[in-house]
Inverse folding.
């Protein structure tokens, strides 16, 4: 942490600043209390955002669905259909370009879903699934109209490739959403974290060895807590991104 008097970096357990020699025994508990209050206010703000979103949906459901559906479903679906038409129908480019576009287009809409509308990962996956269904149906309809073929896939393999392609779009949308949650919420909280670690972090710290001092145990528990707060969402970003890329490219790479 930083010394509140000289702003130099010091150990969290320090009682006297080694740079300015000021006594920290009085101010450190106050700093920890302030950090706890800030964390609680941030939690309450997130809860308030969720309540406001729910109230907006129940208060004006038609407007809510029309606005969010238009921004987060119809618009990216139209862009995906346009990308499909340009790559496949007009210019006959390699399908790799379409797969890249299908990952990059839904990504910023998933980001905006949380950044602008505070739609969490559950709602984001639903919006991504709707985007995938609408865009894939539109792509199949365009191909059917141009080539005079049936809209729906003709066999199991085509159905599987269609579902996998749609899943890659939905996962890309979810990846953007989780990424923004990680950047806007979890990382700032972790960087500013302080005070007493949670009981779960203490239990994990004791499992690594109990024959250490209280200050060492608390420092170990705080590091574990910071790790727990970031690794889970970060793993979610990596997993959804990898799933989106894999399902999008699976048809090109072969079974």
């Amino acid at each position: 942490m930083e010394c509140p008097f000289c702003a130099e970096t010091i150990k969290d357990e320090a009682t006297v600043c080694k740079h300015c020699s000021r006594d920290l025994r009085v101010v450190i508990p106050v700093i920890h209390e302030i950090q706890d209050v800030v964390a609680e206010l941030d939690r309450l703000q997130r809860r308030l955002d969720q309540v406001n979103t729910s109230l907006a949906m129940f208060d004006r459901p038609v407007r809510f669905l029309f606005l969010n559906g238009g921004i987060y479903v119809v618009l990216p679906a139209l862009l995906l259909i346009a990308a499909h038409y340009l790559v496949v129908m007009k210019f006959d480019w390699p399908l790799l370009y379409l797969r890249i576009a299908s990952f990059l287009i839904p990504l910023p809409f998933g980001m905006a879903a949380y950044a602008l509308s505070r739609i969490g990962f559950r709602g984001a996956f639903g919006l991504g699934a709707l985007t995938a269904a609408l865009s894939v149906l539109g792509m199949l309809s365009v191909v059917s109209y141009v080539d005079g073929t049936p809209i729906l896939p003709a066999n199991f393999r085509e159905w599987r490739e269609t579902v996998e392609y749609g899943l890659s779009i939905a996962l890309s949308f979810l990846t953007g959403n989780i990424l923004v949650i990680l950047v806007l919420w979890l990382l700032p909280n972790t960087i500013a974290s302080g005070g007493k670690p949670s009981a779960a972090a203490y239990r994990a710290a004791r499992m690594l060895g109990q024959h250490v001092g209280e200050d060492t145990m608390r420092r170990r528990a705080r590091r574990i807590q910071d790790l727990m707060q970031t690794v889970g969402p970060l793993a979610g970003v990596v997993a959804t991104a990898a799933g989106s890329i894999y399902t999008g490219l699976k048809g090109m790479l072969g079974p």
User: Anything to note?
Assistant: Residues 61-253 form one domain. The first helix runs from residue 27 to 59.
